[in-house]
Design a protein that fits this description.
Belongs to the bacterial ribosomal protein bL31 family. Type B subfamily. Pfam families: Ribosomal_L31. One of its GO terms (cellular component) is ribosome. Part of the 50S ribosomal subunit. The protein is of the alpha+beta class and 86 residues long. The protein has two helices and four strands. It has a four-stranded mixed β-sheet, with no helix packed on it. The longest helix is centred in the last third of the chain and has 12 residues, at 67-78. It is elongated and about 65 Å long.
Length: 86
């Protein structure tokens, strides 16, 4: 392998802005903010919008979509162009 071409991997904290969940892992991402971790050391922190702690799939708080109502609203607005097949 050639030296000097690979990014440096270092410990980084990813923090979920919605739930406050934090995860310390290795990453090559550059972060300007820092946070003090549970071990007393200071690590760069990256704020993310969603993680497994706040995603509806993992938390079980998914919403049921009204697809029938959406189809009917679309047909009222734009009409039906194709015949109905049963």
């Amino acid at each position: 392998m050639r030296s000097g071409i690979h990014p440096i991997s270092r410990p980084v904290v990813f923090r979920d802005r919605a739930s406050g969940f934090q995860l310390l892992t290795h990453s090559t991402i550059d972060a300007r903010q820092t946070v003090e971790w549970e071990d007393g050391a200071t690590y760069p922190v990256v704020d993310v919008e969603i993680s497994s702690a706040s995603h509806p799939f993992y938390t079980g708080t998914s919403r049921v979509l009204d697809t029938a109502g959406r189809v009917e609203r679309f047909e009222r607005r734009y009409g039906r162009t194709a015949p109905i097949r049963h």
